[in-house]
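User: Can you predict the 3D structure for this chain?
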Amino acid sequence: MSEHGNRKQAVARLQIVFSMITFGSIGVFVKNISLIPAEIALWRGVIAFAVLFIFLLASGKIAEIIKLKHKLWKLFLSGVAMGFNWILLFQAYNYTSVALSTLSYYFAPTLVIIASSILFKEKLNTKQIVCFLSSTLGLVLIIGVSGGGSSDMTGILFGLGAATLYATVILFNKATGEIDGITRTWLQFVSAVIVLLPYVYYTGGFHIMELENMGIINLLIIGIIHTGIIYYMYFSSLAYLKGQQVAILSYIDPLVAVLASVFILGEFITALQLLGGIIILIFALLMKLNLRGDQDEAYGRGRLSPVRACAHREHIK
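Assistant: Here is the predicted structure, written as structure tokens:
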């Protein structure tokens, strides 16, 4: 590889690392916004929509959207799933620690593989079955030793609900085929905002004008930085890195989330819950790396499962 190519890869790795560190810190900022999760999700989508629109205009990709008109309904449904995924994840933060919410959320890759085996008849190999059983054991450890009682349990269930919706987003993305990541994400933001506007209006109303300055600052940070700029940075870097590199680096996110939960927010996590989380992360990573191997083999045969391609390369929160 040329020196220029090596520099591109080095920059891309730094972008992924910075993206994962930023994703991992989102819970700290959400905790400082005194709005219901649905309204936080709505304004996050509105702000990020505006930021990514600027990037799309600058890159000249807006004109390409007209070519996707026959896929818009699938993108709309995936955007709806994304919006409610945010709501459930933010709701999880309200009931339990950011650490437990995030570790539960990372059960999503396991859900994707199981769903793909049922919906798309993709055969599970021995390694995937072992990963599924081990990840489930980790989840049992997290739930079975819930130190915060019913509140912790509720938060963990919200985290699992968010994981299910995230898996749904990936499955819908599979159905849309290959679309530029930024363009697809922007269209999903549009869909999320369209659905969340009436949802927030009828379930709790709008209270953004009641936010104090600190709440507004935190909301702008998760909208502009965590979602707008970081999404753009993340998707822009994928072209220069191998799937295994992205899969490994993506696990900086939960590490940062756990550290932030314990050392910044002062939240409690037991040793067994931490062990369960580590088990989930290890076997979710092994599953992603296995997907990468399947992808390389499938490319050689000319047969690549779209679900597996989406599942190994996408990481959004």
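The mean pLDDT is 84. The chain has 14 helices and no strands.
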